[in-house]
Amino acid sequence: MEPLRVILQKYPTLSVLVFAVAFRLVHRLLRDLPIPKHVEQDKVKSWRWRNLTVSLVHSLLTGPWAVLCVFSSPEMMSQIYSSYTTVDYLLVCISTGYFVQDAADIILSGQSRASWEFLVHHAMVLLCFMYAIYSHHYVGGTVVALLVEVNSVFLHSRLLLKLASAQDSGLYRVNKYINLVTYVTFRLSAQFYLTWYIVQHFHTLDHAAFFLFTMVFMNGMILVYFQRLVHTDFLRPKRRAAHCGKDSAASNNSAKFVYD
């Protein structure tokens, strides 16, 4: 593993670009898979389907990987600034490549306006991840942040099921509860833990003000999305039919899951 670590740290930009291209290749390969006809006939929905499918692949890869990293090196929870292994560093490089690819996909597909929230989110994430890659600091904290990808597996699955008009299926009902639980246990908990850690060690961490600002900003975003999620899946199920037309129109005008 040591030669791999040397290569990754010697050529960080190239490493990220290689993984970005790899995710783009995944995007191309997934285009050959069948998708629901009503999705394929809509340009925006078909783009959303493929974009979300690549995001699901990223989450399936990085979520369990982050969990294994934390379990194998639990000291990184208390040493987010300095503790990491080659496997941790590789994970961060791969995930950074995904975010570069996803941001490029949004921009090049003409979905920047509809997905501006996600471009802002990606910009913040990339600043933090690239800092970790180049400085070799906060790599452990980045791995902890990637625990949110466990929830993203179910979050992306939920959105794909909605695009497939399967909101009334048993699979969707099971997924929505798992999504809610993992949103709290992996997304909210990981984000709030990192925020608490930075506050507690503010005077001993490099660039703590920047990372604290980033965490507070993203905490606000995930709380807004959590409110939307609970409202959509748990507070208005009986009104779904009455709002079918409205939700369909919103779906056509929103890129990822801004209002889903």
TrEMBL record:
Topology in the lipid bilayer: Multi-pass membrane protein
Swiss-Prot/TrEMBL GO biological process terms: membrane assembly; phospholipid homeostasis; plasma membrane organization; regulation of membrane lipid distribution
Domain TLC: 44-238
Annotated PROSITE patterns: TLC (PS50922)
The organism's place on the tree of life at top rank: Eukaryota
InterPro entries hit by this protein: TLC-dom, TLCD
Transmembrane residue ranges: 138-156, 177-198, 210-230
Keywords annotated in UniProt: Membrane, Transmembrane, Transmembrane helix
This protein's record includes keyword Transferase: no
Name used for this protein in its record: TLC domain-containing protein 1-like
Biological classification of the source: Eukaryota, Metazoa, Chordata, Craniata, Vertebrata
Gene assigned in the entry: TLCD1
